[in-house]
Structure formats: structure tokens, C-alpha cells
Amino acid sequence: MNTFGNLFTLTSFGESHGRAIGGVVDGMPAGIPVDMEYIQRELNRRRPGQSSIVTSRKENDRVEFLSGIFEGKTTGTPIGFLVYNENQHSSDYDNLREVFRPSHADYTYTQKYGVRDHRGGGRSSARETIARCVAGALAKLVLTRLGIEVWAYTSQVGELSLSGDYNRYDFDEIEKNPVRCPDADMAKRMEEYIGKVKSEGDTVGGVVTCVVRHVPAGLGEPVFDKLHAALGSAMLSINAVKGFEYGMGFGGVRYRGSQMNDVFETQQGKIVARTNHSGGIQGGISNGEDIYFRVAFKPVATLLKDIETVDSQGNPTVLRAKGRHDPCVLPRAVPVVEAMAAMVILDYYLLAQSHKL
Amino acid sequence: MNTFGNLFTLTSFGESHGRAIGGVVDGMPAGIPVDMEYIQRELNRRRPGQSSIVTSRKENDRVEFLSGIFEGKTTGTPIGFLVYNENQHSSDYDNLREVFRPSHADYTYTQKYGVRDHRGGGRSSARETIARCVAGALAKLVLTRLGIEVWAYTSQVGELSLSGDYNRYDFDEIEKNPVRCPDADMAKRMEEYIGKVKSEGDTVGGVVTCVVRHVPAGLGEPVFDKLHAALGSAMLSINAVKGFEYGMGFGGVRYRGSQMNDVFETQQGKIVARTNHSGGIQGGISNGEDIYFRVAFKPVATLLKDIETVDSQGNPTVLRAKGRHDPCVLPRAVPVVEAMAAMVILDYYLLAQSHKL
Amino acid sequence: MNTFGNLFTLTSFGESHGRAIGGVVDGMPAGIPVDMEYIQRELNRRRPGQSSIVTSRKENDRVEFLSGIFEGKTTGTPIGFLVYNENQHSSDYDNLREVFRPSHADYTYTQKYGVRDHRGGGRSSARETIARCVAGALAKLVLTRLGIEVWAYTSQVGELSLSGDYNRYDFDEIEKNPVRCPDADMAKRMEEYIGKVKSEGDTVGGVVTCVVRHVPAGLGEPVFDKLHAALGSAMLSINAVKGFEYGMGFGGVRYRGSQMNDVFETQQGKIVARTNHSGGIQGGISNGEDIYFRVAFKPVATLLKDIETVDSQGNPTVLRAKGRHDPCVLPRAVPVVEAMAAMVILDYYLLAQSHKL
Amino acid sequence: MNTFGNLFTLTSFGESHGRAIGGVVDGMPAGIPVDMEYIQRELNRRRPGQSSIVTSRKENDRVEFLSGIFEGKTTGTPIGFLVYNENQHSSDYDNLREVFRPSHADYTYTQKYGVRDHRGGGRSSARETIARCVAGALAKLVLTRLGIEVWAYTSQVGELSLSGDYNRYDFDEIEKNPVRCPDADMAKRMEEYIGKVKSEGDTVGGVVTCVVRHVPAGLGEPVFDKLHAALGSAMLSINAVKGFEYGMGFGGVRYRGSQMNDVFETQQGKIVARTNHSGGIQGGISNGEDIYFRVAFKPVATLLKDIETVDSQGNPTVLRAKGRHDPCVLPRAVPVVEAMAAMVILDYYLLAQSHKL
User: Fold this and answer.
1) What is residue D81's three-state secondary structure?
2) E strand spans, chain C
3) Counting runs of H as helices and runs of E as strands, what totals does chain C give?
4) D355:B146 CB<8 A
5) How far apart are the C-alpha atoms of A179 and A190, rounded to whole Å?
6) CA separation for the pair C72, C80 (Å, rounded)
7) What residues in D contact A113, CB-CB < 8 Å?
8) Which of A183, B15, B299, B305 could covalently link to B203 via disulfide, CB atoms 3.0 to 4.6 Å apart?
9) D124 annotated as belonging to a binding site for a ligand
């Protein structure tokens, strides 16, 4: 249940304030050169403390590989890796030991397991996404060789939303601002907005849009394992995600079929769709067009405000504002969305390969 | 890949115009009395020809059980079942043999498999949901014994949308109108609207809302198999679904954390949340509150209009309007959403059981 | 748990005296012509009543396909199939309703499920192997195209055992005698021996040897899913099997490493092993040599003798000799061993394909 | 494919001379106190250098836990662990870089992956069993609480074999001699024999017998996942294993059904079998009697003799005797057999739990 994927899999482990976060990637194709700096760079994109609008907590998060790579190349055997946690001061969290924080997993973990590691959310902490970013970076190494590109970006923060189609934006802009929004002006506005929310000790949600380009037609496993069902499940497994839509998504329910259908035509001897309302997937299988989808993140539950709640005995208590908080998870969620998308696409690529005799 | 679930599983088979649609349910608990009429009734809810606003195609769809039930009770062994297809006149579909219909799976199946059964969409037809409804009805038999209720209803058709919270509605109203909307007035308006769309040979999309009540706290498997990730994947695997959101969903991204957090309090000696913006799931695990989510359906691609497209050689062609069409899939999608939700909840119930020593 | 395999899977269902035995094959490659007569012939090899030395019970066992085959070819979608049971006279088995037969699964099924279908063993009956033979025949259709051959034969019945290596025998001899032994003289002796056992109302066990030829090097998934572990599990899942060994097996434990090692040498520019004590698998991966293994079957528990036992209340009782019995399961087990081996090899072939970029 | 089990799983990673061997245990029940010294002790049982009859290679093999344990108890979240490899001097193995050792996995890994880590067998090394022993020790912690005992011992080395039934031996004797044989006299003879084989630079195989006591009736998943099929697969996945049999196994094929059947009777109000030829499993499900089985190990392929072979170009070459070797793997295999058995039994215990409503 801590394993993700079918043929390319990640098994992850680790608590926020335990000794380490890590994982095992299985099914990595053999013979792929591993650019260690690239992987560390990908991991750095989710790191706290990158800018003034994310949590200032200091974590170096250096990934160490333990197996599966020999003389710079993958061997096809499982790749074990870990990131040691630098902050294991459990006393910092003594105030949480007997308290259930609202809209966190404190209560539900206790209900499920009877016990929990209360330090920083333990296993339910978003630090677990470290393992996803490392595995996703490995997946991307393969996808790049196949010519497949995965791009994610912040498209909405609170009320501020990019209008129009992803095609309008230059994806090279994404990494140039701390919000990871491909529109420089909107990025500026979002940044200011997040700053304001932060100063109030509050948090705000948003939407990440993801586009996958040059996926070959024919990836997807009907009927239960449709490509978009796998993408949806992957995204919904990320902390704080509350919704997923692809193609026209929820917006498309207002349209007529005659408006929504993607009419085929032949261009330069190749069958293509005139529009792409379907989001690159039909009947659960990629059709060769861009795959695009949107992921909704709720505002982070940890505030820098006093919070009313109950303790494990059910007695009312107040959690005092303390430490640091992450006003908007979106900038750091972008690389996680990319990582999960990359893992799904590679997994389905391998599945498609398997049936070619 | 045609198997759904972990411990309670459905393996489905069958094409729209092949001999039969069927499946195998594995992991059904033993000793459960099987009410055959209930199961047939559940299956009838997805049947064409129920009212003037769904397709008038005539299919009796009688389910036959082949195994796993002995002297009226489940035996714990796999339950094989099938529904014979009455309509196997492949000649009706000769015009589709060499044509790729827009926004159907004709093109992608051909890309994936090299061949396809062109009759009525073959495996990609929504007739496959017959197997889901049967399996879901079996799951519901167990859930009912556990006191768990699953309710789905049409909450939006095109522009027409119910406002406000699911708590405002009387779920006993749902089956009283052909739209399966719990608000009688809105149901009337939706019915008229669908009738108009039908008369134009067009189709329209909508949203199904689902509520699951009395789920015990503690169901869900962090981190990749969060309860809502499983629900999302299940819903996204239904034909024509383009989006899934739970709790406040996409709407919640506009709020501040201080507005969204579900504050705990003690009522009658029990810890409860004052609000339920989370949708009954926190950290991927049920918290005992109502689970609710929304599922977006695009308008059906088959129109009763001439449709411009290409044939398998890429030559332009026109598909002539012919036969019948289903102007709005929502009313018949409601039982499918319920069925999938029931299977997920039972599956996760069994998973939770497994770790209690 | 009634599903076998990873990428090529069989989900089976059905009880001995229920309506039907059947299954769903998923992961069958698309575009394979299906020779229906061949499949029926393969199924007939396990049928009762083939000769005087197997049970004389009359079952026609006609397989019907329900999906996944279109215009004579596989479509890549799941293949549903069934064999209707002709004998459903449950009254024939009324004497078993409250009795636990020795060395059958009556007692353990009751312990596990609380209920059981007592008619002819219900789900625990070897009639379930019908589904395996059909799925195995489908797998063989693919293997044949890949040039891979699967041969099984009876190599031991009671004390009568073939001596020496499988290479000494002409496999075309196997189907020429009712014992399915490739040595005509030994077959004659075995046949007489089984006849004698039958006349005494008793049963006897034996060994099936299986040889798989022309498996390409490189199939197998270390470390837990070694190719021989999958083969062993497959064989041990067949009714009455008590042991599995491959290569030199149990016999090899007496040897020194210096005697057992398969020395490599180059023949006609190709690296080959001088001997094949390893049985074609090293480190869990095929090496291109013949794969061979042996499967031990205990004598069938059903005798044509009065049997001392207890009823479900624990009271002593005697089961009176009645009806027919199968003195030696070996001849009918041969096609089942082949079927399981074929499924494993195809499954691992597909797994190996998946990682070739 | 490097993951073992269904609900209690081990995902293992690591090469013989890479940085570390490790794994992730998922599905460990929560709230179990973890006796770290016990686990290290279990791991020490497989360590090289324990006695004069196993390899003298020096490895400390200290296990470090990284997650899933909090304040001395399991939390139900995945348990990551590792053992750092002390010996990473790849130059020691330069002579193997371009050579395929006979009856090792060098050739097959190269065929499968195109590349391999040649140092000490890389991933195919039996050092991988470190992960199994740690996971098995965790499983045993749970089994002990359930009253279930797992015992394995050396029952045969080369020609020297214990005669008779496991009931004749005192299992407390097992750990008192370096061979891990419960008969002190035979242990002495085996030890001398292994010493002689060692002095000749050769190796010898043998058999490990395993007995599992106090397993409750009702564990096992018909039809493909029979309890003994899972045990068999687990054992066959251990390096050097060539055969598995349970109950009367291969020996039982010579008997008549009338001799083999385990007649039920009532003793002290409880239904029991008078004999246990079945090995505690009927129809794939435990019946409450002792489960016992035997595992055949071939002689280790690495000799302390010059070995004739070919290099990766197919040219003849001779591998010169060098370093140390392990004349008989049996003593160190005993804890691995126990570990795998413990994992299977716990996994199936959890599976059985899941279906109790």
C-alpha cells in the first residue's frame, strides 16, 4: 500500500522526523545513464526555503543512492535511496503529542493504527513527497530519451487564475519565478498575494496544470486502468489534493456534444484531431495529442495562528501559533505533480511495450 | 487490467455486441444471503429505455449467476455472472467498420491493438458498466449489513445545477423522477432540458454527486492508496468521466486555510468535526463523517446528426445520423457511480479488517 | 485470489456441480488467430472418460467463448469463456452434506468460509482445471508463434518410474497411449498397474515431467519472482500436487559443486552450457537451454471403498463406496501441467518485453 | 518484482558489493513492540564466519531501521531498513568483470539486462537474503504473539540424511551445533563431512526441513494462491533452491490412496486427523495440524578450485581459485527458510482476517 505503479514502481518509506525518508524504485530500465546532479536539482525544486513565499524551514535534503546504479548506469535492479532527516528534535513537537490538529491526519491515523508518530505529522507529512520527486526524476531520465516532456505549473492561487489555454504560455518561463507560473505578470501578482496571506499567518490553495507532450498514441489500459484514471489516482495521492480533471473537465459539462467532439482530419498524411477537448486521451488510451489536466490543492491546514481544537481525550484546547508555516503549497507542489505524471507515463509505456510480440 | 480492487475484486469482460457482458467477483465474504431481485433491480437502473430522456434501445439485460452462490448464500468463492447480449446484428454497424468516430475510442483502440470490434464501440462501450452494477449490488449487500449507505444523484445537467449542500435534499426523492435528481422542481427542469437537447439530436453533460454515510473512521491506505485516490480512480474509469473532486474540491482552492479547517469539538462524549469541508477523509483515511464527492461527465459523443470525420485511411467522410442516441448519460450513470463507490468502500473495509490482530 | 499471472492472467470461477466452470483471460496479445478446434482438443485431453484407466464419468465439456475474439482473431480485450456443467444433480451428493471426507478440502473450506458447496467438492474439485486448460491453450497459441514448445508426460506411476533423462524419449509418443508416457513399454506396464489399482477401488500417485524448449534467454524476474518460483507456484496450485523440483532437484543435493556446475563453452560462435543440471534457469532467469521440472501428485483421496470418517458434529461415520472413481490422476494431469507452464512462460515473456525500450 | 507478499510485504534492494542491502516492510501491524536485539540475533544466524564450516568472510551486518518504529513500537507505516556493506572493494572482483562463471547468474543477468554489476554476483548474490531475515524476524514478532512457531533445520547434507519423522527431534537442539541439525550425532557427522568437502575446495548440497506449529485452521487462498503454493514459491525464490515438497511430497507418489488418507476422528471433542500425511494443508488451506515441508539446496557454484569457463566474448578461460568459499550453504540457509515461512504465514493470516466481517 506504500507501493505505486505496475511495472515501474516506487515503494516509499519514512516519517517527517524519523531518521530518513526514502524509497525503492523497481522496474527501472537497465543501461540508463544517471545524472546525479539532475536528480538532486529536481529534488531541490520541492525543498523548503527556496523563496520568501514558501516555508523557511531549512532542510538540505541530499539524496543518497544505495543500489541499482553501477558505474553511472542503471542495472535494471531496484534502486534504493534515502534522504536523511536533519531535524529530529522530537521535543519541538511535544505540544502535538496529545492533540488532534484540525484537517490534519492526526485523528484518522490514531483511529486506523491506534498509535501515531506525532512529530510533524509523521508519515502523513508532505515530506514523503521527497521519495516521489526522486523516483519521478528517474522516470524523467527515461522519458527524455523517448522524447516525452512533462510540464507542470501553477495556474491558480486563491482567486488569481490564469485564463485561457496552456498553449498561450512559454513553459521556459515557469522556473524563472518563485510561484512557478508561466505568465510573468500573473506570477508577480500571485507572489504578492501569497506574501499577504503569509503575513496574516494564513494559507491559500490553488491549481496546478500539467501538460505531457509527445506521448505516443496507444498508451492506456481499458477499462479500469484507463490512463487518466491512473493519472487521477496519482494526483489525488498527493497531500492536500482535492480534485482532478483532464481535458475540458468540469467545465465541459455545460457544453453540447456537438461542441465538444474533437473532429478528426488528415494533415500531411497523418490523422489528427482539429481540437483537443478530450485532453489527449480517448477511451482511456492516449491518442497522440497533448495530455493536459488540472489538480486542485486545498489551503494547507497548518496556520501561524492560534487554533481551536481538542486533545486525544476530547477536551477543548488551543494550539498556539509557533514556528514557521507554508502559506501556499503550490510552488513546491509543481515538481511533485510532474514527478507523479512522469511515473505514470513511464509505467504505461512499459505496459504497452509488454504486449508487442 | 480488467480487474478492479484489492481484496474485493471485479474482473469484467465483454463487448457491446459480442455474446455477453459479464464478470467475476472475487473476495465476496461468505454466508451473505443474495437477494436476486434486488440485484436485478439495481441493474435495471442503468438499463436503456427507462424513460423518454434516455436512449430507447431495447435491452432486457437479465443477469445470470454461474457460481459462488449456494442455497441462496455466498460461499466465499468467486461469483461468475453474465448478461447475454440480445442485439448482435453486426451488420447494423457496417458503416463504422472503417471509420473513426470523433471523441470515441475507435482511433485509440486501433492504435493500441491493431484490430478492433467496431460494433457499437466493442469493449469501449458503456455496456461494460453492466458488470460494475452487478458487482456493486453484491458489495451493497455487504455494506447494508454494516450499516453503510451509498447515495448518488444527478446534481447538474448542462447549465442547470443544484445549489447548496447535499444535506438539503431528501434522498428518497432520487428514484422518483427519471433524471434521478433529489429536487423535484429541478428534476422537472432538467427533464425538459434533456428533451430539448434530444430533439435537436444533440447531447449534454453533467455532474453526479455521491454521498457515503456511516463509514467507520479508519478506512484508507496511505500514502498512494488514499481512500479518495481509490474513489477518484474508480470514478475516472467510468465512460465519459472527465473530473473528480471530493469535499470542497476545486471550489475550495479559493478559500483561506482559516476558513477551510474543520475544527474538532466534543459532542456527547464523541470527537466530531464542526464542519465537513474535508469530505469525510483526512490524510487519505475516513474520519467517520459523510464522504461526499462530485463526478463530471462530458456530453456523450454519439449524436443524431451527421458527423464529419475520417476513415481508417485518413480520407474525409461523413457519418450519417442513424438509429437512436442517448441525449444525457447522467440518469443512467447514477447507479454506476454508486456501484463503484460501494466496491471501493467494501474493498477498503476488508483491507482495514486485515490488520486487526 | 482466483486470478493467476501478472500480465497474462486467468481469473477462474465455478464449482464442480454449479452451473458452469469458466474464466476470464486478460492480457492476451491482439491479432492472434484462434483455432477453436485446437482449444477444444486441448480441453478434451483432461476430460474424464477418455480411457479405461481414468474415471468413466461422462462430461462433454464444450467450451464457449463470450468475448475478446472478433472475426476469428483476438482483440486484446479480455476473453470470457465457460463450460456448462451437465451434471447438477445435487441429490447425488446428499450423503456428503454433513460429512468431512478424509484428505479432501471439506473440513478446511468449512473452517475458512463457514459454509461450503458439498456437491462433488464444490470449488475444490479438480473440475476447476477446465479453466486452466482453456487459458493454457490460448497461451500455447502465442508460444507456438514464438517457436516455444511445452511438453509434459507421465514419468512415474506408483513404483513404476522412467529411468534416465528426458532426452531419451520421443515426445510424439506421449499422446499415443492412455497414460501419456513417452515410453511405449513402460506405458503398457503403467496402464496394467493402474487397472489393477482401479479394480481394488484404490488410487495411486505419480510424477509428471515437463520440458519447455526454445525459451529465449533472459526470461525471469529476480529476486522473488524467479522463473522457477513462478513455475513451482503454478504447479503447486494444481489439485493433488505435493512437490516440485527443477533441474537436478532433490537428487542434486547429493552431488558436489564440481560435479553439478554447468560448464560454459562456445559452440559455433554461441555460448552454451556443456550440461544442463540447472534445468535451463540460473539466478531465476532462463539461459536458453531446455527448462525441465518434475511435479509430484499424491494418490487421489476419493476411493471406491468404504471410508471411515466423522460428520460435521464430529461423530464417527462411514462413507459407503459409491459411483465411480479416478484411480490415477496422472494421465489427465499432463495437459494441466502443460497449460500452467504455458501460462507462466507467456507471462514472463510479456514481462521481459516490457523493459525493452 | 522485488516485492514479496500480498498484505505483509517486503520490497528488497541492494547488491553484494554496493553501498547497502536493505528493504521496506509494508503491512506490519501497528503497536507491536520491536525487540531490536532479537532482530539482530536472527540476522546474525545467516552471517558468514559463524563457524569453521561456513565461509570465513567477515561481515558485521548491523541492521539500521529508518522508519515505521516509534518509541519502540511499530506504527503500521512502512519499515525501511538497511545494512551497509563493509566490503566494497570492487577491484577484488576485476577478474570476474568479463567472465561468466558456470552455474551462476552472470550469463543470464547479462542476457536480461545488457549490463551487470559483476562484483560478487551483484544483485544475484545471496547477500540479498539479509533483507529477508530482517523482514522475517519482524513477522516472527507478530507470529509469536499469535502463538505460532516456525522451526527449520538441516535434515540432509550430501549423502547424510536424518531418517524418520520431524517429531522425533528436539528443536531446542538446532541452535546448539553449527550445522543446525536437531540430532547431535548426525550434526557431528555432517560437520566433519562439510569440513572434508571444504578442504577439497568443493561444495555440497542438502535439505532444510521446516515445521510450522499452531497455525489456525482456515489459512489459505484457493485456487491459485494455495497456502503451500505460496510457501513453495517463497522457498524456490531463495538462492540455490531446486525443489520443494510438503507433507509426504515426492515420497508419497508410491503409496495408495488408502494408505495416504488422513482419517478424521474426534479427540476430546475436537475433530483431528489421525495421521498428517497431508502436511497440515488440504485444498490449499491449513487444517490446524503441523505444516511441514522440505527444501532442496544444490551445492554452491563457487568452488576453491580452478574453474573452466568462457568470457563474455565466448573465449575459453580459467578462473583461478581465490579467496574463500562456502562449502555448504545449509547452516546459513536455515534462518532464511524460517524467515520466508514466517512472512508467508503472517501474510496469509492477514488475508484470512480481512474476510471476517
Assistant:
1) strand
2) 3-4, 9-13, 20-26, 64-65, 69-70, 73-74, 79-84, 99-100, 149-157, 160-161, 206-213, 241-246, 264-267, 270-273, 281-282, 285-286, 291-297, 307-311, 316-319
3) 7, 19
4) no
5) 7
6) 15
7) 30-31, 75-77
8) B299
9) yes
**Confidence (pLDDT) at D320:** 87
For CA atoms C129, C131, C133, C135, give the dihedral sign.
negative
Q: How many residues does chain C have?
A: 357
CB C156 within 8 A of CB C297: no
Predicted pLDDT at B88: 64
C-beta atoms of C142 and A353 within 8 A: no
DSSP assigned state of C90? G
**Which B positions 47-106 lie with beta carbon below 8 A of chain C?**
64-68, 70, 73, 75-80, 82
Is B62 known to sit in a ligand binding site?
Answer: no
8 Å CB contact between B303 and B201: yes
Angstrom distance (rounded) from CA D36 to CA D63: 9
| Chains interfacing with A (3 or more CB pairs < 8 Å) | B, C, D
Domains and CATH numbers, chain D: 3-354 (3.60.150.10)
Instruction: Read off φ and ψ for residue D82, nearest 5 degrees.
Output: -155, 160
Q: Which residue type occupies A196? A: K
- Which residues are CB-neighbours of C149 under 8 A, at least 6 positions away? C143, C212, C213, C214
pLDDT tens, residue by residue, C132-166: 999 999 999 999 999 999 999 999 999 999 988 99
Give yes or no for a contact between A343 and A216, defined as CB atoms under 8 angstroms apart.
no
pLDDT 10s digits, C276-332: 999 999 999 999 999 999 999 999 999 999 989 999 899 999 988 888 889 999 999
> In this complex, do D350 and B354 lie within 8 Å of one another by their Cβ atoms?
yes
- The CA distance from B319 to B96, in Å, is 8
ipTM given for this complex:
0.97
User: CB of A324 within 8 Å of any CB in chain B?
Assistant: no
Q: How far apart are the CA of C115 and the nearest CA of chain B, in angstroms?
A: 6
Q: Which amino acid is at C287?
A: N
- Position C306: which residue type? D
Best CA proximity match to B143, nearest among B305, B349, B286: B349
Output the nine-digit C-alpha cell for A346.
513511464
pLDDT in tens, B43-68: 999 988 788 887 777 778 999 999 99
Contact status, residue A228 vs residue B236, Cβ threshold 8 Å = yes
